[in-house]
Every structure is written in structure tokens, then in C-alpha cells.
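Marked as duplicate of an earlier ticket. Keeping the data here for the record.
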Amino acid sequence: MFIYQREEKTVSNSIVEAVRDELRQIGAVRNEAEFCRDWLGRGESYLRTLRFTGRQPSAAALLFCADRLQRLALHLSSNSVANGAYWAERFALLARDCRAEMERNALVRCPIPQNRVLQNQTGKYLSNHGGTVATPHRRGAERCV
């Protein structure tokens, strides 16, 4: 009997790992499980699963994290906490990076077709040549496969 072990894939330069490390550094989270649960809104093994499968964080997890970071930044900037201005700026930047990562991932998962650059008033997309290409599937939105 042979036992095969899948090679563990890593999420390279992931913004969520940078956020996790930053929060660990200041003592806001004790471990990865707590970070996944409280800062990503996911299960305790979420990052471990991402590393194993080689996937990127979901848009929902990135948005949840960005929202938490932004609220923390606002809290720190409005209170007289020692080094509050520095940390407020740092967390606001991390929140912005989470949103930017979410947008990058969305473009990779669902690229905008180059031949569907304009939608006319009838709801049909016009190609670069001016002809009608397709009608959206539902309520004016194309499905992404």
C-alpha cells in the first residue's frame, strides 16, 4: 500500500497573512484560529485550508477583514490611545489593501470580456464593431463562469 501526501501549497504574499502577522504583533489575536474566526468571519482552519488547496481568500472574507480593520482604524483615530494615529493609519492601509486584493481576485476569477465594452439602453452588449453580441442572463448582469 502506498500513501501519497499532497504537497502543501502556500498562499504567496497574501494580504490576510500580513494582517494576521500585524495583529499578532500588537497582541490583538493570539493565534491563527482566532484570526480566522474573528477577523475573517470563517472557521478556525480557514487559512490552513487555503494553504493546502492553493486558493486565495474569498471576497467575503476579505471584505469582512477590511470592514473590521476600517472600524478599528476609526476607533483609534477618534480616541486618545497611545500611538493611536500611527495604528489608525496602518489599519486603514491594511483595509485598503484587503479591498484591492478582493478586486484583483475578482478580475482574475471573472475577467471582463474585451468584446463587451458597452451596454446600450436595450440591455444588449455592443461589440467593438458596433454589432449586438449578447443579452444579459438576468437583470442586466452577465454570469461569470
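See parent ticket for discussion. The two ends are 39 Å apart (CA to CA).
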